[in-house]
Automatic annotation (TrEMBL):
It comes from the Bacteria. InterPro entries: DUF2063. This is DUF2063 domain-containing protein. Residues 5-91 form the Putative DNA-binding domain.
Amino acid sequence: MSLIELQRDIRAWLIKEDQWAAQRIGPDAAPGLRIYQNNYRAQLIACLDESFAHTRDWLGHDVFHQAMAAHIDRVPPSSWTLDAYTRDVPETLAAMYPHDPEIAELAWLDRALGDAFVGADAQPLSTTVLSEVDWDRAVLHFGPTLDLIDATTNAAAIWAALAAGEVPPAVELLSEPGALLVWRHDLVSRFRMIDGDEQQAILLARSGVSFAELCTSLVAAHGETDGVAMAGALLGRWLADGLITDITEGDETCASPQS
């Protein structure tokens, strides 16, 4: 048996408990293979336990570990780093608990905050350059750690309470569509709930439209006075939060927003 064949058989045993693979490795290998498989699962569960601590606290230790055991069976590791193994956990929990959407949202928040902490560095834009910006053509660029997801529950409030060691509130569905926003600023992973207007504005900006086009979109939705005021307020908030890392000039000239 070649080395690559042995590696494939060990992988098949670890992931699927493949009896044929175990027999090819050797008739006397079964006890060692069981120990190896137990260590493999225990190390993955320990990794997930650390990465999803607040999801674990919400579900309870035993229920969480049962769910992670199911996840290990569903999604074997496929990357050289364990950091990547957390990626599919929210999807596993969404499938396991379709009537409890806060669980998957908590898991997403746990994962996104961890990803933001180890994400690429980028210097937030200084407000001193704003006077030099051609707002007719300005295109906003967000930092690489920014992430967001649709939110349907008060998972953010639950997470915050668990992180503070407080009794979490009961689950509530949001009355209006919103999103969870995660990023890193000043070496700290941060999050906040945002409404649908801000979510759509961020998605538009990230797609490469100019700030003037973003203003036009908000004016169309809210009227000229409120739309322009909202655009200015969002820009100010994004700068204060350290979300924006650069402003470049787009190719097309648009109507200049008034602020």
